[in-house]
Amino acid sequence: QVQLVESGGDLVKPGGSLRLSCAASGVRFSDYYMSWIRQAPGKGLEWISSISHTGNTIFYADSVQGRCTISRDNAKNSLFLQMTNLRAEDSAVYYCARLYDYGAAEAFDVWGQGTVVTVSS
Amino acid sequence: EIVLTQSPDTLSLSPGERATLSCRASPSLGGSYLAWFQKRPGQSPRLLIYGTFTRATGIPDRFSASGSGTDFTLTISRLEPEDFAVYFCQEYGSSPSITFGQGTRLDIK
After folding, report:
1. Residue A100: which H helix or E strand, with range?
2. How far apart (Å, rounded) are the C-alpha atoms in residues B79 and A84?
3. Which of A35, A69, A101, B71 has its CA 20 to 30 A from that of A83?
């Protein structure tokens, strides 16, 4: 079955950097748009970034524009999120999710278990 | 940019009761879609509904959804103990960015 496993979350100081990874299995990874979504403690879900099948089309939320870079390696079935100049408000559980095309609609049908990023001095 | 406002923030009900959760979009969604997710503590979000109306694979038929334009509803016909969780609506298709509602917490009364 399709599985997504995130890694790379850590405790980092404000202004620091971190690279998150998401390993996919049980799926032809290159067939799908992928996204990063986060949930800060006590808050709701926030979409961060999406990347197309080939990586040619990328979108970012305003809250991370200029500080985050999404990328993928289809040969290694992997998705990445490079985060720089981290702030306390970036502290959250970060999920990768697959965007599945049902034909009439698209939706995030598979999610990883999440990786925790804590930004604190 | 679409803003999704869910109501109520918290809904307290008993098992066996009917739950009605609201998601209001501003401006209207037009031709874009709404999805609903369930989030239990310590677990990943679970897709319940996509394309505004359609249950995802494996979702029990006690979950249903309706709506169009600005007003959307998720209904759980008879609450089971495992249904007490936080529910999020999400819009996709109106722009490159993707919006979630702030969530409705469904608590056991």
Report:
1. strand A92-101
2. 44
3. A101
